[in-house]
Amino acid sequence: DQQVKQNSPSLSVQEGRISILNCDYTNSMFDYFLWYKKYPAEGPTFLISISSIKDKNEDGRFTVFLNKSAKHLSLHIVPSQPGDSAVYFCAASSFMDSNYQLIWGAGTKLIIKP
Amino acid sequence: DSGVTQTPKHLITATGQRVTLRCSPRSGDLSVYWYQQSLDQGLQFLIQYYNGEERAKGNILERFSAQQFPDLHSELNLSSLELGDSALYFCASSVTGEANSPLHFGNGTRLTVT
After folding, report:
1. Helix, strand, coil % in chain A, rounded to nearest 5
2. CB–CB of A106 and B103 under 8 A?
3. What is d(CA A38, CA A44) in angstroms, rounded to the nearest whole number?
4. Which among A43, A101, A105 is the nearest to B107, CB-wise?
5. B contacts of A45 (beta carbons < 8 Å)
6. A34 to chain B: nearest residue by CA?
7. What dihedral do alpha carbons B28, A43, B13, B25 form, nearest 10°?
8. Rg, C-alpha atoms of chain A
9. Model confidence over B68-107: pLDDT tens digits?
10. What is the pLDDT of residues B27-77, one digit of tens each?
């Protein structure tokens, strides 16, 4: 039972354009969402997060949008740069069994074409 | 550099053997997590410790065990190894272990079971 789904295994975008990475979730109890970026041979790196009480959070070229009614969040990168080529993971958190549980999507590989 | 150190980087061993993976968290972080990533799949949460105590358990097999020591470093022990245990094992740390405390990942230990 995948509670967090990233339905696109890969995405190819032209340099300078907008990259939009999507993530869907099923559990309405999730209260915090995070995006991580991963380069080959390295561990994931935290990128940006959003609380469920907000619908948008922006940090430089990165913006995360949350649509709670649709149980959908998206990460926008604009403009896309070659260094953005990586695997992007969406993760969602909820408080269960006296602890925060973090559930991860399978990742989307973003390729920025020059 | 995330500040999280994992050793060794690579490990090749035979089926039936036992190995120990080591993790030193980022300075000041009290919580340590272990994740498994198999063949370009998503991150599977194994176990979390906070200040020496087990806090949460994920999909960790009974053949696997972990602990966090008083100096906050952690070890993941994998025994009776099977071919299917070949994977990247990541350690991550965070300050509080709560949802709004992003994880900082090491670069992983690649385990190959032959």
Report:
1. 5, 60, 40
2. no
3. 4
4. A43
5. 2, 105
6. B102
7. 0
8. 14
9. 999 999 999 999 999 999 999 999 999 887 877 889 999 9
10. 999 999 999 998 767 788 999 999 999 988 888 999 999 999 999 999 999
Which residues have C-beta within 8 Å of that of residue A43, sequence separation ≥ 6? B2, B4, B90, B92, B105, B106, B107, B108
- Tell me whether strands B64-68 and B74-78 are parallel, antiparallel or unpaired: antiparallel
State which residue of chain A sits closest to B2, comparing Cα positions: A45
Please tell me which residue of chain A has the smallest CA distance to B94. A46
| Sequence-separated (6 or more) residues with CB below 8 Å from residue A62 | A35, A47, A48, A75, A76, A77
Put simply, the answer to whether A100 touches B105 (Cβ < 8 Å) is no
Q: Looking at beta carbons, which residues of chain B come within 8 Å of A99? A: 48, 55-56, 97
Partner-chain contact A44 B90, CB within 8 Å = yes
What distance in Å separates the CA atoms of residue A21 and residue A6, rounded to the nearest whole number? 8
Q: Which two tokens stand for residue B90?
A: 């990541």
How many Cα atoms within 13 Å fall on the side-chain side of residue A41? 2
**By the 8 A CB rule, do B103 and B4 touch?**
no
